[in-house]
Amino acid sequence: MTTKPDKNNENDKNNQPGENIPSTEAAKNAEETKAATATKATTGATGTKSPGLLHWIVAAGGLATFASTFLAWTYTTEFPGNLTVTGYPGGLQVLTLVAGLLLTLFALAGLGVKGLRWLTPAGSTNALRLLALGAFGTTWYAVLAIAVELGGLVNLEPGGFVAAVASAIPLAALALPQDARPPAEPKDLPSWAQILVLVAAFAIGLYAVSYGISTEYGELFIGYLILAGCVAAALNKSGLMSRVSAIASAHRQIAVIAAFVAAAVFPFTQENDTFTVIAVNILIFATVALGLNIVVGLAGLLDLGYVAFLGVGAYTAALVSGSTASALGVQLPFFAAVVIGAVVALVFGVVIGAPTLRLHGDYLAIVTLGFGEIFRITVNNMDGDNGPQITNGPNGIPNIPALDIFGYDFSQTHTFLGLEISLYANYYLLMLLVMVLVVVVFSRAQDSRIGRAWVAIREDETAATAMGINGFRVKLIAFALGATLAGVAGTVQAHFQGTVLPEMYMFSGPVAPNSAFLLAAVILGGMGTIRGPILGAALLFLIPAKLAFLADYQLLAFGLALILLMRFRPEGLIPNRRAKLEFHEHQESADQHDVPERRQSAESGATTAKAGA
Questions:
Q1: How far apart are alpha carbons 613 and 602 in whole angstroms?
Q2: What is the pLDDT of residue 346?
Q3: Fewer Cβ atoms within 10 A, N terminus or C terminus of the chain?
Q4: What is the mean pLDDT of residues 478-490?
């Protein structure tokens, strides 16, 4: 009698652990997964066809936008920038030219053209979308500005209409599918090539900043803001900024030297001192913002009266530096004035902080706001009538002499290695050295034991106290150190301005620095970082200064810009890693959940099923 073999036993035998032979169903699933992966690689993340055609459309639109700038956009020179010349772009046309060129290069990089792939290490889709919006916004702003200022579209030459149509073509980038490929691995460059990349990056940055500060009229500055914002976001999305940051981290000392040299060269790129004065004020504002960053960004203390410490340093320097209106009648050297201004600000920081830092949250903010207003009112009343004659009341302390350090007179023009250093360039270079000092202090404090204690207090004061950190002492040190740095900046400000007035140290106003602008610079730039407050201070001082032509609408436009920035970049322009994760925690979670759904099991060769499937 013949016995039929048992199918179950046979299957069990075929599926013994040592055999490693996949079942028919598992093999089939593996083949389907490979096919799906290949299809996705060729069609993109959205399942559409190859985006090559759209890339060619964007490249063609960028090239047409570039070419349109060589045509006349209007027939009259009444619109600033002289857009009447054919074959020579000027004014707002230059911005459109740059936008068209970048669009073309990035579109070709997205197509995989050799020699351009390094432009988009993290993919080209998002970068092209932002560049397309930048080109469209800049060009259409120029066209509409011509129509509004000159009284209608009839004032446009055919070149203006060509530019408007050409800049709309690259908007096809909005239909591009997301890049499915992972970020490309960076190529190993020799050290000399990496250093050249850093030098080129800082040179381009210096030129871009100098161009923005030197814009001669409001329309050009607004167009510059539109384009610069979109280009910066595009470079970030393309991964290019991350590459440069990685190189800078690998060559930190060279990067710091290059950044300092680029900043020091700025005054020599200007034809006059108009914008050097703005740069000096930006450095003063940025230095004070870094001091506030210790209090707000590291220790998490909301200080609304911080500008008062700047005023303490400025008034102290004015009283001891030989001003004809000084009640003390003494003239000390600059270094002595700096030390005294810093010490007096430190004392004020301790005196104000000792009784108030036991408060928390809104209560602390209200008390510090009161301190700032008390300081302004007090120096306003010390005029000999309402109080002792010390600060000359609302008239302030004028005629503060220019600095003279070791025989180097800051009020005179000097020549060094064939370069002419003007009056304001003297103060610019001095303030640059002061900022370097403040950056060193901030970085050392941040990385120290006390810096880690500040962060612990900021995150959870109760938990930090339970771990043995003396919260009150740590917060008082932060308050005192921040006040000291503001006092140092105030001493330089007093000599640079030549006079100090109570109105210069208000809580808020249309002109920086004031407490509201300082706090905004720290928050918008990126709390707890070094570059963030510097960038935030530069923007918050430069933008109101350049938008003065808007008159009564200046604060309205400025407020709208802040709202948009907080909506799309709540963690700040240059956030630290912790803040970025906190504000985008839902995105990080979504990305982490997406990975296992597409992951192929290495053991079985089958696709891992979704949860609940």
A1: 20
A2: 92
A3: N
A4: 90
Nearest of 136, 135, 128 to residue 177 by alpha carbon: 128
Going by C-alpha positions, the residue among 113, 122, 130 that lies closest to residue 56 is 113
Mean pLDDT, residues 20-40 taken together: 46
> How far does CA 166 lie from the centroid of its chain?
31
Give the separation between CA 166 and CA 168, rounded to whole angstroms. 5
The model's pLDDT over 550-594, given as tens digits with 9 standing for 90+, comes to 666 777 777 777 787 777 777 778 877 666 666 555 554 444 444
Contacts 24+ apart (CB under 8 A), 142-151: 142/73, 142/83, 142/92, 142/93, 142/95, 142/96, 142/219, 142/223, 143/73, 145/79, 145/92, 145/219, 146/73, 146/74, 146/79, 146/83, 149/78, 149/79, 149/219, 150/74, 150/76, 150/78, 150/79
Of 454, 472, 464, 473, residue with least CA distance to 527 = 454
**What are the beta bridge partners of residue 407?**
none
How far from 578 is each of 268, 359, 455, 528, CA to CA, in Å? 39, 25, 11, 10
Whether 199 contacts 265, CB under 8 Å: no
C-alpha gyration radius of the chain = 30
Mean pLDDT value across the chain: 80
Q: Residue 534: which residues within 8 A CB-CB, separation 6 or more?
A: 286, 289, 290, 435, 525
Sign of CA dihedral 176, 177, 183, 184: negative
* Cα first-last separation, the chain: 47
**Which residue spans within 102-186 are E strands per DSSP?**
none
Ramachandran quadrant class, 609 (left: phi over 0; alpha: psi -120 to 50; beta: rest): beta
Round to whole Å and give the CA distance between 372 and 348. 11
Nearest to 37 by CA among 182, 240, 234: 182
Query: Nearest 10 degrees: CA dihedral of 522, 527, 528, 533?
Result: -30
Listed in sequence order, the DSSP H helices in 357-470 are 361-381, 423-447, 449-459, 461-466
Q: How far is CA 197 from the centre of its chain?
A: 21
Question: How many degrees, rounded to 5, is the angle at CA 316 between CA 504 and CA 320?
Answer: 130
Q: What is the mean pLDDT of residues 600-610?
A: 38
Q: Measured in whole angstroms, how far is the alpha carbon of residue 378 from the centre of its chain? A: 36
Check residue 574 and report its DSSP letter.
Answer: S
Nearest CA among 428, 423, 425 for reference residue 410: 423
Write the single-letter amino acid at 500: V
425-450 mean pLDDT: 88
* Secondary structure of residue 120 in the 3-state scheme: coil
Angstrom distance (rounded) from CA 33 to CA 605: 9
What b-and-e string marks burial along 487-514, b requiring 16 or more CB atoms within 10 Å of the CB?
Answer: bbbbbbbbbbbebbbbebbbbebeebbb
Instruction: Find tokens 């203006």 and name the residue.
Output: 160
Mean per-residue pLDDT, 81-107:
91
The whole-number average pLDDT for the span 449-456 is 88
DSSP state of 495: H
Q: What is the mean pLDDT of residues 308-336?
A: 86
